[in-house]
Amino acid sequence: MAQHDKVTPYEDQSTTKKGQVTKMFDGIAPYYDLLNRALSLGIDTIWRTKAIKLLKKNNPQNILDIATGTADLAIEAAQVIKPKSIVGMDISKEMLRVGDKKIIKKKLDHIISLEQGDSEDLRYKSESFDAVMAAFGVRNFENLGNGLAEMNRVLKKGGECMILEFSKPKAFPLKQLFNIYFKNILPVIGKLKSKDPKAYKYLYESVQAFPDYESFASILKTAGFTEVTWKPLSFGICTIYLAKK
Asked: Mean of the per-residue pLDDT values for the chain?
C-alpha cells in the first residue's frame, strides 16, 4: 500500500498528495465529464449503472457518496434507488460546482446535496448512513487505510459499502492493450482537451500502483468491513467491490 500512497499527480515535494489531487481536479473540472465519456468510450456510464443496481438490492435511504466529483454516481443513485437523501462529498470545489449545475438541471436538488470535505477526516457522526459509495475516488486517497476506515465508521451496522474502481486486466492481449492505451494514448488526449497531461499520466500510474481484486478486498477487511465480494467489469478494466459493516 505504501507504493500506492506515494503516487502523486505532480513532482512537487512541498505539497501533499491531497493538495496535489485537489489542484489537479480543480484544474480539469470543466473538461472532466467530456473526457470521461471520450476516454472510456462511454463505458463508464454502464459501469456506474451496474454498480448502483447492486447497491439497490438493500434499498438504502441515506447514502454518502465519497469523492463524488461531478456527482455522476450520486445522480445515478438518486434516479435508480430513489432514496430520501444523498450527500455527495469531494475535496475539489470546482468539481462540485460542475456537479451542482447537473443536479439542478436534473431537478434532483431535493435529494442530493454536495459539500466540500476531506474523505480521510469525515465530519459526519458514526453510523449515519445506510450506504457509503465511491466511484474512481479511493485511488486518490493520501492514506487508503484511513479513508476506508472513515467510510466504515460513518456506515450503520448492517449497511453496505460499494466501491467502483479501475483495476488491471490480467488476460492477454487486453492487459497489453490496456497498458498502451493508458500509458501512451490517454495523456495525449488529456493534453489536447484539458491542457494538463500530468493528470492523465497520474491516472495510469495510480491505476498501476493501486491494489486490486484480492489485495483490495484484504485492505477493506482490515478497515473493518466484512462479506467483501468483487465483480470485475469489461474484462477487468474496472471492478465493483461490495462490503458490509
From this structure: 90
Going by C-beta distance under 8 Å and a sequence separation of 6 or more, which residues neighbour residue 102?
70, 71, 75
> Which residue ranges make up each domain of the chain?
2-244
Sequence-separated (6 or more) residues with CB below 8 Å from residue 217 = 228, 229, 230, 241
At 114-167, the pLDDT tens digits run 999 999 999 999 999 999 999 999 999 999 999 999 999 999 999 999 999 989
Q: Is 151 helix (H, G, I), strand (E, B) or coil?
A: helix
Q: Which CATH architecture has domain 2-244?
A: 3-Layer(aba) Sandwich (3.40)
Pairing of strands 226-233, 238-244: antiparallel
Straight-line distance from the first to the last Cα atom of the chain, in angstroms, rounded to the nearest whole number: 22
Amino acid making up residue 128: S
97, pLDDT greater than 70: yes
